[in-house]
């Protein structure tokens, strides 16, 4: 990809939580590696000075355990600050001044979506959007209509190829490896279809609750928070046809085809849950029926996947923190070895975090006289964790205009279209114990395919065990 590099990074929401938790530590890491050598302009309405911004960034880098005094001093020397109301034209005139002739800034909107229109108008009005790029964070709308409205707002000033919608899952090493593994090998292709795949399961489990994000979570719930975006993107990578090349447009074209082929969801294919204790979290309504767990079954009406159930499950306060995909293969046509206990179908397992695994599960004969088998796994990849922080990869890509790992407009809208029928909150919310695998009713979703595969927990020595 050879596009002009952005020559300044402008961070709206510089005094906010996301900037503190994620963006400053990431920018600092990029700077340290020599991957970021442009001015960084923080914008916020906090009555701050440049020194306040530097302190905020220092604190963020320290909290991330990355602080080095000399490096930070050089990093801080790149920082500028503009304080002002996002609705005021003067703020954008001040930003124009701070840009100091930069021609291709990257505007990072780490702000609530309700502020997007003001900022986008301000940038357009001040004439500092022309050659610029814009990065937006999720939540990208809360349903199809609001996502469309946001897109219209962005498009009023920025062309689609200048818009980078972050879904940080796409920047994860194991998620990229999933795409790579599928299309860099030929052995998968003959079996990667409805004839040999019995079902596909994706579980995103987190062993913690909403940890201080109760107010935010009340607005979203598990379906909007992680299923509409992260997990549907994983479904697309698993199910897509081979792109013509790794060019962003071709990869994104194939994903959209998958989204367009997903059969409309019905409430009967959904189970929602809420962990006991959620309603007592700060910022949560005492009678909230927002789901902290969701399990659903979807079908892709395509030549390749007709009739194959894709099960998707995500939840907070589950027994482990792990994201895992299991692709179960059909049983052999005949049971030749009577003593072979079919505990689990042959499968591919992709563990997307916290450690990274790609494995093929099969049965092999146990040593001894009897023709008795045991399950075994061949591991293609097993790493302790993700090498590069996903935000680092994504911001680096946006700086050079590579959109492969970002959601395109049609894709964002198609993803909303998939979940839209189940967003009305009509499916009952079942309570579950924190530390369990969600409400008992979730078993119904997987009853036809032999039940859910629960990811195991990663022990400090790198081995896996049941929680
Ligand atoms: C975020 C969600 O998008 O992804 C969080 O808002 C979730 O609720 C997080 O915990 C998980 O991402 P990761 O990279 O920490 O696995």
Fraction of helical residues: 25-40%
Secondary structure: number of strands: 18
Largest sheet: 9 strands, mixed
Mean pLDDT: 93
- The class by helix and strand makeup works out as alpha/beta
Features:
single chain, 467 residues, alpha/beta, nine-stranded mixed beta sheet, seven-stranded mixed beta sheet, globular, binds 6-O-phosphono-beta-D-glucopyranose
Q: Can you put this structure into words, describing what you see?
A:
The strands form three sheets. The chain has a nine-stranded mixed sheet with strand order 14-13-12-11-7-10-9-8-16. The chain has a seven-stranded mixed sheet with strand order 3-2-1-4-5-6-15, with helices on both faces. Strands 17-18 form a two-stranded antiparallel sheet. The chain has helices spanning 17-32, 50-63, 69-76, 89-99, 116-125, 144-155, 173-184, 214-239, 248-261, 390-399, 409-419, 442-446, and strands at 8-12, 40-44, 79-83, 105-109, 133-136, 163-166, 197-205, 270-275, 293-298, 310-315, 322-329, 347-353, 356-365, 373-383, 406-407, 429-432, 457-458, 464-465. The protein is globular. The protein is built from twelve helices and 18 strands. With 467 residues, the protein is α/β, with parallel strands linked by helices. The longest helix is centred in the middle third of the chain and has 26 residues, at 214-239. Bound molecules: 6-O-phosphono-beta-D-glucopyranose. 6-O-phosphono-beta-D-glucopyranose (BG6) is lined by residues 168, 206, 225-226, 353.
């Amino acid at each position: 990809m050879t596009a002009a590099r952005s020559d300044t990074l402008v961070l709206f929401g510089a005094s906010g939580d996301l900037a503190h938790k994620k963006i400053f530590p990431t920018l600092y890491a990029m700077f340290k590696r020599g991957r970021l050598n442009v001015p960084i302009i923080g914008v916020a309405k906090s009555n701050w000075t440049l020194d306040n911004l530097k302190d905020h960034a220092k604190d963020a880098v320290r909290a991330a355990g990355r602080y080095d005094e000399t490096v930070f001093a050089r990093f801080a020397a790149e920082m500028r600050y503009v304080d002002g109301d996002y609705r005021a034209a003067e703020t954008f005139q001040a930003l124009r001044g701070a840009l100091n002739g930069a021609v291709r800034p990257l505007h990072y909107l780490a702000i609530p979506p309700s502020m997007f229109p003001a900022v986008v108008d301000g940038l357009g009005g001040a004439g500092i959007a022309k050659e610029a790029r814009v990065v937006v964070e999720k939540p990208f709308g809360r349903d199809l209509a609001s996502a469309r409205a946001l897109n219209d707002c962005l498009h009023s000033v920025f062309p689609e190829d200048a818009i980078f919608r972050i879904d940080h899952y796409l920047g994860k090493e194991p998620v990229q490896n999933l795409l790579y593994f599928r299309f860099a090998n030929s052995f998968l292709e003959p079996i990667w279809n409805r004839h040999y795949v019995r079902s596909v399961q994706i579980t995103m489990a987190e062993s913690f609750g909403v940890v201080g994000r109760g107010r935010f979570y009340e607005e979203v719930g598990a379906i909007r928070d992680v299923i509409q975006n992260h997990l549907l993107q994983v479904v697309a990578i698993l199910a897509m046809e081979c792109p013509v090349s790794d060019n962003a447009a071709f990869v994104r074209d194939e994903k959209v085809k998958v989204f367009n082929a997903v059969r409309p969801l019905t409430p009967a294919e959904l189970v929602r849950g809420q962990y006991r204790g959620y309603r007592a979290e700060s910022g949560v309504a005492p009678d909230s029926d927002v789901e902290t767990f969701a399990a659903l079954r979807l079908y892709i009406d395509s030549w390749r996947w007709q009739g194959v159930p894709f099960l998707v499950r995500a939840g907070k306060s589950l027994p482990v923190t792990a994201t895992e995909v299991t692709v179960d293969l059909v049983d052999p046509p005949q049971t030749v070895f009577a003593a072979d206990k079919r505990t689990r179908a042959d499968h591919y397992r992709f563990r997307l975090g916290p450690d990274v695994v790609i494995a093929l599960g099969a049965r092999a004969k146990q040593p001894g006289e009897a023709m008795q088998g045991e399950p075994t796994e061949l591991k293609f990849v097993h790493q302790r964790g993700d090498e590069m922080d996903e935000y680092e990869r994504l911001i680096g890509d946006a700086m050079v205009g590579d959109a492969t790992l970002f959601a395109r407009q049609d894709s964002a809208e198609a993803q909303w279209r998939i979940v839209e029928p189940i967003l009305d909150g009509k499916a009952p919310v079942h309570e579950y114990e924190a530390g369990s695998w969600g409400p008992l009713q979730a078993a119904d979703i997987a009853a036809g395919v032999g039940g859910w595969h629960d990811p195991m927990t990663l022990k400090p020595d790198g081995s896996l065990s049941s929680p």
